[in-house]
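Note on ligand handling. Small-molecule inputs were canonicalized before submission; formal charges were left as drawn, and no protonation-state enumeration was performed. Where a ligand contained multiple stereocentres, the stereochemistry in the source SMILES was retained. For pyridoxal-5'-phosphate, this procedure yielded the string shown in the input block below.
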Amino acid sequence: MLLLNPGPVTLSERVRKSLLQTDLCHREPEFFDLQDEARRRLVAAYELDPAKWSAVLMTGSGTAAVESMIAGLVPEGGRLLVVENGVYGDRVAQIAQQYGIEYEVAKYEWMQAPDIDAIVRLLDTKKFTNVAIIHHETTTGRLNAIDALSRACAQRGVGLLLDAVSSFGAEAIDFDGGGIAAIAATANKCLHGVPGAAFVIARRDALAQAASRNYYLGIARLAKLQDARNTPFTPSVHAYYALVEALREFEEEGGWRARHARYAKLAEQVRAGLAALGMESALPPEESSVVLRAYRLPAGVTYETLHDALKAKGFVIYAGQGGLSKELFRISTMGALDANDMDRLISSFVELLR
Ligand SMILES: *Cc1c(COP(=O)(O)O)cnc(C)c1O
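Structure output:
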C-alpha cells in the first residue's frame, strides 16, 4: 500500500528495518547517543548554528510539538496573533485558548492567502509578543509566504512561531530573516520517519524566556535535560531509531533542497496527469507547496467512491477537511515514492474514470 495522505508516509526499507534494532533502555548512554544524533542532525538540516538554535525532541505527533511551542514560547503575560487560513491555524488558536494565552486571530478564508501587509499593520497598532502562522497549510496545500512577515517580526522584536509540520525538510524556511523564534515539526512527514517523535527547533534566547504552562510538553525542561544528555520521561525509543535513520538518509540524498526538487517533480507529474483527465488543482501550482496538492473531485464522483477504488489498487488518498470534504481530495507526494508509482496512480485514475 502506498500512502498519499499527509503523513504518516510510506517508509523506505532502510527506515523500516531501523525499527528492528536492539532493545534499548532510555537511561543508557546508547539512547543518549541516539538523542544527541537526532538533535544534531535536525539543527543541521537547515544549516543552523547550534550555539543559537536548539532542537527539542518530544514523544507525540506533530500537534504535540505545536502545543509545546505555543504554550512554552509565548512568554508569561505575552500576546499572540494567530494567522488562520485553514484547519491547522484554527488548531493553534484552540491551543492558545486552552492554555489561557491572550490571543487574537487574523482570519482568512480557507482558500485564501493571508494578507501579510494587513498583519504587519496589526503588529504596529496593537502590542503582540508573538505571531503564529502555518507554513504549509495542509488543509488546502497552500504554502503561506512567510519571508516578509519574518522580517517585519524581526524589526519589531516579535517572535514568529511557525507550524512547519508539513514543510520542514522539503520547503525553504526563512531562518535568516531573523523573525523566527521557533518552528514545530514531526518525524513522520517530509523527514520520512515514523509517527511518535516530534520536535521544536527554537532559538536559545527564546527558550531562556519560556513560560511554564504545561507539564509533559514543557519545552524549557525538555531542552535543559536533553542538553545534559537526559530525558524526563520514557521517549518513543523506536521512533527515535527511525528518525535518526531517516535523517541519515535525508542527508545522503542531498537534504531539503534535493527533497524539494524530488517532491516538485512528483507533484507536477500528478498535476499534469490529473489535469489531462479534467481534474483541476484547487490552487495554482505557484501558490502550493511541493508536498501536497488539493484537487477538485470530478463531477458525479464522491470522495468515498474515489478513495475506495484507489485503495483497491494500492493507493491511499486523503479527503478534504471540514467544509471542503465534498469538493476536494488531496494527494501528498511525501515518503518513499517515485515516478513509476505516480504513473501507476494516474493509470488507476484513467481506468477508474472510464
Ligand atoms: C500534520 C500536521 C500537523 C500535526 O498533525 P498530527 O496529526 O498531530 O501529526 C500540524 N500542522 C500541520 C500543518 C500539519 O500538516
